[in-house]
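Hello again, I could really use a second opinion on something today. Take your time with it, there's no hurry, and the full record follows here:

___
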Amino acid sequence: MLGVFICELTLIACIDGLKGFPEAIEAIFPKTKIQLCIVHQIRTSMRYVTEKDKKLVMEDLKPVYKAVNEEIGYENLLSFEEKWGKKYPLAAKSWMDNWTNLSTFFEYEDQVRKIIYTTNPIEGMHRQIRKVIKSKGAFSSEQALMKLMYLIIKDISKKWTMPMHNWGLTISQLYIRFGDRLKLERGF
C-alpha cells in the first residue's frame, strides 16, 4: 500500500515493506522522501516473537519510534537489539536493516510525523474499494472499472467531513521543509 502527499511533485511516500518499492520510487521520484510504515514494521517484528514476550518487546520498541529525534531513536534501537537481539534476532535485524527508511519521519515535527508514520488510512480506503469491486465480478472494460472506482471514491469521500487536525500547522511544517516544491493553491 502507498500513501503519498502529492503537490507538484511527490514529497513523501509512506509505504509498507514491499521489497524493491523504495528503490522504484527513488528511481522515478528522486527527491521523494521514503518512510516505511511503522505499524507494518511492528507487525513484521512481532511475527518473530512468542506470545508471552510480545507485550514486553512492544514496550521496548516504543522508545525507538517515539523518540524525539533520530539519534535518540537509534540509541534506543541499539538498546533494543542488545536486550532482545539474541532471543529474537530477526525482529531486531529488520529494524536495523530498514533504519534509513524507518527514521525519515524524525526529520519532521509531530504534526507531519502523525501523518506519515503509517499507511493505515490509505489501506482503509483500498479495503473499501476492494469490497465493492470484489462483489461485482467481471467488468466489460477497463473504463467500466475506472468509472466504478471513481464512484466508490466519490462515495467514500462523503465520510471525510472532519478537517485534518492542525492542518495549517502541518502544511506550514511541510513548507518549511520543502519550500518551493510545495505548491499551494491560492486562498489556502
User: Anything to note?
Assistant: DSSP finds ten helices and three strands in the chain.
